[in-house]
Write a structure and sequence with these properties.
Elements (H helix, E strand, L loop, with lengths): L2 E6 L5 H15 L3 E6 L13 E5 L13 H9 L6 E8 L5 H12 L9 E4 L4 H15 L2
Parallel strand pairs: 1-2, 1-3, 3-4, 4-5
Helix pairs in contact: 1-4
Length: about 140
C-alpha cells in the first residue's frame, strides 16, 4: 500500500479545508494518508512516504508563507527525487502567480509533479473539491 503525506500551512482555514479533500482522494485510491501542518512535519520524514502533497496559500505579494512553510519547503526540496509530489493552495486576491512560481521552482529542482496543481479562491467550491480529490488519487498512484 502506498503511503502519502499531506503537508500544509493554513492561516485562515481554507487550505486546511482543501487538505481534507486531498486526503479523501488519497484514501479513495487505496493509499494510506497522514496529514501534517507545516509546523509539525520534518524534512527527514520525506523518506518514509511514497508521495507528498504540499499545500500553501498565497501570502503577501503572491508568495509562499515565509516564516513556517518556506523554510520547510527549502529543507524538503532536495529529498523529493523519485517521489510523487503534488501542490495545492488558496488565495484571496491575484490569480495564481504564486502557484506558477512554485511549479517552476519544482521543475528547476527536478521534482516531477504527479498531477496538475489545484488552486481556489478562498474556500474550495465543488469544482475545487473534485480537483483536490483527483490530485490526491494521482499522488497515491492511481
Amino acid at each position: 500500500m502506498s503511503k502519502v503525506a499531506i503537508v500544509y500551512f493554513s492561516a485562515t482555514g481554507n487550505t486546511k479545508e482543501m487538505a481534507k479533500y486531498v486526503a479523501e482522494g488519497v484514501r479513495d485510491a487505496g493509499a494510506g494518508v497522514v496529514m501534517y501542518t507545516a509546523a509539525d512535519f520534518r524534512a527527514v520524514n520525506c523518506r518514509i512516504f511514497d508521495g507528498i502533497i504540499f499545500g500553501c496559500p498565497a501570502r503577501g505579494n503572491e508568495t509562499l508563507e515565509e516564516n513556517v512553510f518556506r523554510p520547510l519547503w527549502e529543507n524538503c526540496k532536495g529529498r523529493l527525487y523519485g517521489k510523487r509530489v503534488g501542490l495545492f493552495g488558496s488565495y484571496g486576491f491575484g490569480g495564481g502567480v504564486w502557484m506558477q512560481k512554485w511549479e517552476k521552482e519544482c521543475d528547476e529542482a527536478g521534482i516531477n509533479l504527479a498531477s496538475l496543481s489545484v488552486i481556489c479562491k478562498e474556500a474550495p467550491d465543488d469544482t475545487a473539491k473534485k480537483e483536490l480529490r483527483i490530485l490526491g488519487a494521482a499522488v497515491a498512484g492511481r
